[in-house]
Design a protein that fits this description.
52% of the residues lie in helices and 8% in strands. The chain is mostly helical.
Length: 212
C-alpha cells in the first residue's frame, strides 16, 4: 500500500502525466495535513461527539470547549479529506469515519490513530537520530497510561520501509517484518505460521543482527 497523487481535473491529470507536478511536495502537504487533522480531531473528541448525528461548528466547539473559528476550520478540513460531510452548515461523519475512528465502532481504529499521533511527535527528532545514531528508546521512557492504552498492538498495522525507519527511531535497532521472520522460520524447519486475519498487526522482532 502506498500514497499516490491523482488529478481532480484534466489539467491536473495532464500535469501529472507530463511530470510537471512536484509529487514529493504534494505528498508532504496533504499527507502532513491529513495526519495532523485526523489526530487532532480524534484527540479533541470531534468524531465521537458527532457520532452518527450532525452538528454545526459553533455548537460542537462549545461542547468540546474549543474556539468556534478553529473548530470550523478543522471541520472544513476534515470535510475536504472525506471524513466528514457538510450540508447547510451542519457536519456529520462519513461512512469512513463511522467505520474506523468512532470509539464504539466494531472495527474502530481510534486507539491506532492516537498511538500514531504520539509517533508523529517522535518523528520530529528523526534528522538528529539519523545523523548521530542516538535515539531515545521508547521502552526506556516513562510512558503515560494514555500512550500505553493508545499503543495497543492489535490496532496497529505497519509494513515495509516505514516500519524499519520508525523502529530505528524508537529503539536504534533493526526491525524485521513478518515476511522475513516467516522465511527464517521455514528455513529453520519450523511449521509455517498460520495466516493472520487481514487487520492483525504483523509480528515484529527487534534485533541488531539476523538471529542465528
Amino acid at each position: 500500500m502506498k500514497l499516490t497523487v491523482s488529478g481532480d481535473n484534466l489539467a491536473e491529470s495532464m500535469g501529472l502525466l507530463s511530470g510537471m507536478v512536484p509529487t514529493p511536495l504534494v505528498h508532504i502537504t496533504f499527507g502532513m495535513g491529513y495526519a495532523r487533522a485526523v489526530v487532532a480531531a480524534t484527540r479533541l473528541g470531534v468524531f465521537d461527539a458527532l457520532g452518527r448525528g450532525d452538528s454545526d461548528a459553533a455548537t460542537l466547539a462549545e461542547h468540546l470547549n474549543c474556539s468556534p473559528a478553529g473548530m470550523e476550520a478543522l471541520l472544513n478540513c476534515l470535510t475536504g479529506f472525506g471524513l466528514l460531510s457538510r450540508r447547510e452548515g451542519r457536519y456529520r461523519c462519513t461512512s469512513i469515519a463511522t467505520k474506523w475512528v468512532l470509539e464504539d465502532a466494531e472495527k474502530s481504529m481510534k486507539a491506532g490513530v492516537l498511538f500514531l499521533g504520539f509517533c508523529q511527535e517522535m518523528l520530529w527528532g528523526l534528522e538528529d537520530a539519523i545523523r548521530t545514531g542516538e535515539v531515545e528508546r521508547l521502552h526506556d521512557k516513562d510512558l503515560s497510561p494514555e500512550f500505553c492504552d493508545a499503543g495497543n498492538p492489535k490496532n496497529i498495522d505497519a509494513s515495509g520501509g516505514w516500519n524499519e525507519l520508525f523502529f530505528f527511531l524508537i529503539s536504534g535497532a533493526k526491525a524485521w517484518p513478518q515476511e522475513t521472520l516467516t522465511a527464517w522460520m521455514v528455513e529453520a524447519g519450523f511449521t509455517t505460521p498460520a495466516v493472520k486475519r487481514l487487520m492483525a498487526a504483523p509480528n515484529i522482532l527487534l534485533v541488531s543482527e539476523r538471529p542465528g
